[in-house]
## 1
Amino acid sequence: MPAYADPAALPLFMFVLMAFGLLLSPAQNALSRYFERQCDRYALMRTGLRDAYRSAFQKLARLNKADPDPHPLVVWFFEDHPPIRERLRLADTVQSPSGG
């Protein structure tokens, strides 16, 4: 019987999968945050509704009891969306379609 077909190898296989997932999750989260930032920027540029954007994310943070400014290591390891404070700061930097 081949080694991979032995049921005793299952715990080792699960451990390897878990370790691989832990190693890859910061990269996956960074990619997800990158796409989220692109979506936020696109929404602000297309609509120009900065106040509505800010209000929506402030309400979301309050309802979800989210930390608006988590530690950078927490963001790097666990967060797949940009922190609320970063999203609110983005509203100040993106130019609306009318230029203001």
## 2
Amino acid sequence: MSKRRSWVAVAAVVLAMAAWMLADCGQGIAGQTQAPAAPHLAPVYGGTLRIVMPFATQVDTNSVLQINLNEAGLYFHDSLFDWGPDGKVKPMLVRQKQVSPDGLTVTWKLQPGVTFHDGTPFNAAAVKWNLERKIQKKQSPYDLLPFKSVEVVDELTARVKLDRPYPALDAVLANRSFAMYSPSFAQKVGDDGLKTQQSGAGPFILTSFVPNEGLRLKKNPNYWQKGLPYLDEVHIRIVNDINTRATMLAAGDADVALRLSSPDINRFRQAQGIRVLEGQGSQQYYIVMNTRRPGLSDRRVRQAFNYAVDKEGIVQNVYLGAARVAQAMYATPSLDGFAPAGAYPYDPDKAKKLLDEAGWKVGAGGFREKDGKRLSVDIWTTKGSTPGDYEISELVQGMLKAVGVDCKLTLLEPATFNPRVSLPPEKSEYDMVSMGFNAPTGNVDYVFNMLYSSKAFPPRYYNRAYMSNPDVDQLIEQANNARSREEQQKLNAQIIKRVHEEAPLIQLVDLAQAAAIRDNVRGIYLNGPANNFPAQFAWKEKP
């Protein structure tokens, strides 16, 4: 892209591409299933888009990296970069980018004429304030970026100095956890105020947020991308029950339903007036094992649990074939730098043998015991936050019991789930947690530094297994500082293989992403790396 091409022009091209692809009946972006041919291709102004989805309990997108919060943040926040419909990262609030030959200095020319919702101008000082605030408050994933300094060159030019070259910089900054906040508004309302109020530079203004009920957004009349958005309002209703979300869409009480079950997605494929948009993202579903807990501290036990679970059975019975058996711990093939480690095959006999070798012998009631103590684990799970979460947990419970493990389930409410599974190891109370994770940057180094590293224990990041392997840590450090792609890829393969052997989780499935949408809604696409469905520039066809 020419350094002089404006982002406004890029946005127009992107929207034209999106309209064309949504009119295509074949395959679109990254294998997505697209809608039937639309009778009207020209965008239409006006109307209200009604979305039903699970959600977090606050709207401070920068404070936590959470998939549903990032989805909502697309409407009221813009970031320096963004993911386009073609699956590539593009400039957003950055107009031009220049990187020094050594990769250690990045200069950004910013979009002119941008204001935050409270009237504060967006400029280089705002960029510096936002990035430094993120670092000072240690908000995830602040230290993934090797920032040395952020400088204001002039009103619309910012310069970043790095400790090392970082090719994934744009992709990381495209996530709404790096959204640009109005500095004056954030300072006025404080951290507590930001949980319920926001002032960004996005296409919609957040007018109200009621926890556990919903968000109301109205069109930003001063949005910097002229002619956008098309919609007058967006209403996001928080519906944590997965069946209720489907019922509301079917009844006409919603235009878009997210995070639906596979049976409902199949039903909507045949429903009149509704279409399904789907494709492969970067989300994996697994059951993490706390390596600090009795029994689970033994790698042989963790490997045995992997052999005891029928992953293909989960793909067919829970997802009706619309998922893939995972080939690496946490990482999916859609990530740049991915190297497969393979899946643990379903082999209950091998699981039993490993448990025997670890000293867990079958005792009273068919359950395994060691030194007078039963091999007992409790799986924490939600129901409906991620499609298939509870169903998977029930199946795994039965499969572990089949090899002599006393396995229980504990159902957590979505509002308490993240806080309870984001504690340091000395305060954690779980044995195992049924959950999903995605890598919004589109790179495996995100997985390495957020989930594999011993520096990534909660609450800092997401190594909820509390796995600590010095060899893995050393390899990650080498990969972070690799000077060539070839060197980095070799290290990536070694890291993924070593973690596969450690088995910090029951490696299950890579999830497809799907949304059910009413036929008159156009301009929505799947952002695979972030596993969301941007609709901030969508429109509704008139009858």
